[in-house]
Amino acid sequence: MLEGKTAIITGGSRSLGKETATTLAKSGADIILSYRSEKEKAREVANEIENSGRKAAILQADFDGNLDKIDGFVTECREVLKNWGKDKFDILYNNAGIGCHTPFPKLSEKESDDQYNTNYKSVVFLTQSLLNDINDGGRIVNVSSGSTRFSVPFLIGYTPLKAAIESFSTYLAKILGERKITVNVIAPGPLDTDFNEELFKSMPQVKDFIAEQCTLGRVGVVEDVAGVTLFLCSDAGGWVTGQRIEISGGMSL
User: Fold this and answer.
1) Is 158 a catalytic residue?
2) Is 1 inside any structural domain?
3) Segment 126-164, tens digit of pLDDT
4) Contact by Cβ (8 Å): 250, 192
5) Confidence (pTM)
6) Catalytic residue of the set 35, 93, 158, 171
7) H helices then E strands: how many in the chain?
8) Which domain holds residue 179?
C-alpha cells in the first residue's frame, strides 16, 4: 500500500507514534522517527520496523519551539534520506506533543508557553522547514484531540493549542493543494496509553467516566487510530484533504 514511500514521524518512540510507525512500515514505508529522551524505546521501534523488511532511522529531537533545534532535525532527516538514496520524502506525521491537566486558576505562564511551543509552534515551523523536501502528492497528518469538539475543564491549558492546529491544517491544505499534497487532522479521543497514564493514576474515576461517554463503551487504544492514519496516507485517502477526522468511539454525541 505504501511501497517505496518514506515517512517522518515525530514522537515515534511510544504510544500512538510507535503504533503509527509500525503500521505504516508494515504497509511498505521506510520510517524516520524522532524521540525526545527514550532512545532505547525508539531503537526497539526501529528494530521492529527493520525486522519487517523496511528501513528505519531514529533521531533525537526536542520540539520545544527552538527553531535551531528544528533546523538541526531537518538537516539530519536530509542526511538519512541521502543515505537511503532519496532526496525527498512522502509523509509527515506531526505527533510529538505534551499534555497539561492543570486547572485554569493554577495554570502557569510556563505551562502555557510550553504548550504553545511544543504543540503548535514546533508543528508549524517543522512543517514549513520540510516543504521543499516533501514530494508533490505527499501527505501531512497532524494530531489534534477529540476534546476540541467539547469542553473538558482540566484540559484548558492543552486543548486550545490543538484547536489552533486544526485551523492551521485547513489553511495548509488550501496552500498545498496545487502540489496535490493532502493535509488532514486526526482527533483521537482519550487513549489508554502512557500519554494519559499520569491522569488515569491521579484521577482513576476519569477512565470509567470516559468509557461511559463513548458510544462504543470503552476507552480507545492506539490500534483504533493508526489504521485511520494509514488510510489518509494511502492512495485510498488521496481525495481527502482539509478534514478533521475524530476517532473517539462516538464520545459525547
Assistant:
1) yes
2) no
3) 999 999 999 999 999 999 999 999 988 999 999 999 999
4) no
5) 0.94
6) 158
7) 9, 7
8) 6-191+221-247
